[in-house]
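Dear support,

I submitted the protein below through the web form. The confirmation email said the job was done, but the results page showed an empty box. After a refresh the structure appeared. I'm attaching both so you can tell me whether what I see now is the final result or a partial one.
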Amino acid sequence: MASATRLYHWFNRRGWSDIVIVAPYVWLLVFFLVPFVIVLAMSFATRTPTAPPFGYGGDNPLLNTAGYARLIGDALYFRAFITSLLNAAVAMVLCLAIGYPMALGLTKIEPGWRNILLMLVILPFWTSFLLRVYAWMGLMGSNSWFNTLLTEGWNWAVPQDWAVHSIPMMHTNFAVVLVMVYTYLPFMILPLYANLERLDPTLDEAAMDLGTRPFGVFWDITLPQSIPGIIAGGMLVFIPAAGDLVIPTLVGDASSPMIGRVISDEFASARDWPMASSVAVALLFLMVGPMMIYSHYQARAEHREAPK
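What the results page shows now:
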């Protein structure tokens, strides 16, 4: 009874606040750090025909770096990384070009309409991700109504010698980028909207009262203040797009795979778990490293600018 009473008083004083603080760290420990340590350990193992298909010690070296050496020397992995980074970068830039005007427009309209439009932005999340990708596969197929419409429009506008029967869209990098832009566009719009919505509108009004043109107000005041939102949205688009598996597998070019598909093939088809783990670790450092460096210097800059 006494222990229950002490526990009750502990919860009343500070228990819930401690749980709220500790819970995110427990989540990161269980679902990020522990899996990462497991994958990192597998990357230094040796491939074996047993189950699981890797081993340490004995006839196998304790730390086998052959996977990382192959990662550097094999052109397949280099091309996959370059393809992934280029597709993700193009998708990120297109999401920014489309999402920034949408986010800025959301901050300028009445709150009632704003809530409706925000709901429309997140509405695709109510549908299965895989189902949405399959819908795009149907649209981009050689015999789809969408392809037929584009083909007829093209044939009507060009000489007969340039006529085409269908436009090849499926299994190309164009299809990968297109579906990525559609899929990850809300991840760009929402951080930008959250950032732009907090800006002080009186700064824009003061600049216009002083004779600055609307584009100058945007370029000199709005855009610099929205850089944190641009960076946050860019990371939310670029990082998952670079490691995506479903979109490149379903609509991409098998002869030019992205790194997510390479990792999947090494795990499932080749059953080379150490090699797949090496690629996954390299991808993680490639994605998370620049983000950690940026966060470090951003924190230092905010500390220097803070009033003393």
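Response: this is the final, complete result; the empty box was a page-load delay. The chain has a mean pLDDT of 84.
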